Backbone:
């Protein structure tokens, strides 16, 4: 993200209801977390387009949201894929995502910052979870494993 560049928080919240946010947008939210209200409890069965901001040290079980996510081969653990996303030319974000058990196009993505400057700072604990259901029938963009995480 270009230093000094500002996003409109309300605009980003509105955009998150229609599409995946770009890494620079997610980074802006995490760096400016005080402009958002933190979620105090895991939401129960959040709908498509929901955006939440958690402190993962306070709310350790934020993933317990009432949805059935695809499991690993052991049948117990949720299978989450992991990527590091770049903002500009620098790896800046961790992204973990899970697919719905009944509807594979339903995804949960969790993001947090990699920057060591934030390690001792409370902001490193913030996680943004995005839920999205995309299909061609309702005119939304299909979600690919990697192509729409940009």
Residues:
């Amino acid at each position: 993200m270009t230093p000094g560049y500002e996003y409109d928080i309300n605009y980003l919240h509105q955009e998150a209801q229609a599409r995946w946010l770009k890494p620079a947008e997610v980074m802006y939210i995490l760096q400016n977390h005080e402009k958002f209200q933190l979620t105090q409890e895991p939401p129960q069965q959040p709908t498509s387009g929901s955006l939440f901001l958690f402190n993962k040290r306070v709310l350790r079980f934020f993933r317990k949201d009432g949805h059935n996510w695809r499991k690993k081969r052991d049948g117990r653990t949720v299978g989450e894929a992991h990527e590091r996303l770049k903002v500009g030319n620098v790896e800046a974000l961790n992204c973990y995502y899970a697919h719905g058990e009944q509807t594979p196009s339903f995804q949960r993505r969790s993001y947090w910052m990699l920057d060591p400057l934030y390690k001792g700072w409370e902001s490193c604990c913030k996680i943004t979870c995005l839920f999205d259901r995309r299909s061609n029938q309702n005119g939304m963009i299909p979600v690919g494993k990697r192509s729409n995480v940009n």
Observations:
- Residues 78 and 109 are 13 Å apart (CA to CA).
- The helical segments are 9-16, 23-31.
- The two ends are 13 Å apart (CA to CA).
- Residues 120-125, 135-150 have pLDDT under 50 and may be disordered.
